[in-house]
Amino acid sequence: MPFELFIGLRYTRAKRRNHFISFISLISMCGIALGVAALIVVLSVMNGFQQELRSRILGVASHVQLTGANGELADWQQVAQQARQHAEVVAAAPFVSVQGLLSFDQVVRGAGVRGVVPELEDKVADFSRHMRAGSLSALRPGEFGIVLGAELAQALHVFVGDKVTLIAPQGLVTPAAVLPRLKQFRVVGIFEVGMYEYDSGLALIHLEDAQKLYRLEDRVSGVRLKVGDLFRAPRVARELLNVVNADVYVSDWTRSHANFFRAVAIEKTMMFIILSLIVAVAAFNIVSTLVMAVTDKEADIAILRTLGAAPGSIMTVFIIQGALIGVVGLALGVIGGLLLANNLDVVVPALERLLGMQLWNKEIYYITELPSEVLWSDVISIVGLSFVLTLVATLYPSWRAARVNPAEALRYE
């Protein structure tokens, strides 16, 4: 074992004459552990929110969407067949996207109306998993059934079995006047995905019923696609431009919902920077610890120098001592952070019972428990940053130790 490592470890384990130095070392170690644990837990929760947001959005939206250049697509079967030739595309479903007014008992609400084929829609979206009442398969052509978002149904005061009137914005021109086109639909289902945008403003009807009401004949608005890996959706969207032989616009979920994910990514970055300051403060406590340790060990440093130890060796001794404090705190923080992040479903209810208050309101967030997802890339980044800060904190005290003058230090010994 190199003597620098041996002495550095011995200084760390030795019982110091000055107990205040030991206390500061312990505080530095605990500060690094708390900072690292807080970083891991907070970033894991942010990852969980991002995953939850992504699953809720993609439970309604599509990975990739092909829409007609003028808002209508005539030969959607051919477009879907060409899109499915791409190796990444696993499912395709046509849709009609229009606007309408829903009326029930003198209550009127505007909504986005989507015409779908239930058996195909189930392959590209997760409506069936989010149904609160009824089912998506109850949408049958010619029966004029409708599935409403939970907030929209509540605003209209309707339940499964009630009949609502759907008013199309395109008027019916007659010699007397322009009359609105309207049709009664029976509510056959209510869904709740936990995204207010969809729960309060989306209604589903069968594709053929939408085509009849909006006079689209056999045309649709476009085709929705599901890909094997949702993170490859942007690349798949670009490649489909060369595969699909039709005049279509191609978009993917990262573009249609970019603001949501950009906001979460910015929040995650800012939380990382803010919480890193906790680790930085704890790491720089090592500076005061080592400065006092150098003052306490001046006589030992002088003896080592007279025995032939180079200034670089003295510097290495105290770098090892400071780095060991940081590594121990870092290890405790990683272990504690991982245990806490992976058991938030137990910790949060326990804190609620202990404090006698509700920390997580399921009715507000539409999430049954605090989401958490540990990414090892985040853990590695946290460990790397914390270790670098620890090493930086040891440089000045170690440099000061290397500059100790043996004659001055031993004068009064």
Would you mind describing this structure in some detail?
The protein has 413 residues and is of the alpha+beta class. It has 2 domains: 3-55 and 260-410, no CATH class; 62-255, no CATH class. The protein has helices at residues 3-13, 19-58, 76-84, 118-124, 150-156, 196-199, 207-213, 233-243, 253-256, 258-296, 298-306, 311-341, 344-355, 362-365, 376-402, 406-410, and strands at 64-68, 89-104, 107-116, 131-134, 145-149, 163-173, 178-191, 202-206, 222-227, 248-252. Strands 2-3-8-5-7-6 form a 6-stranded mixed β-barrel, surrounded by 4 helices. The longest helix is centred in the first third of the chain and has 40 residues, at 19-58. The protein is elongated, with a radius of gyration of 32 Å. The model has no long low-confidence stretch (mean pLDDT 84).
Q: What would you call the shape?
A: elongated
SS-based class: alpha+beta
How many runs of DSSP E, i.e. beta strands? 10
Provide the succession of SSEs.
HHEHEEHEEHEEHEHEHEHHHHHHHH
Which descriptors apply to this entry?
about 425 residues; alpha+beta; six-stranded mixed beta barrel; 16 helices; 10 strands
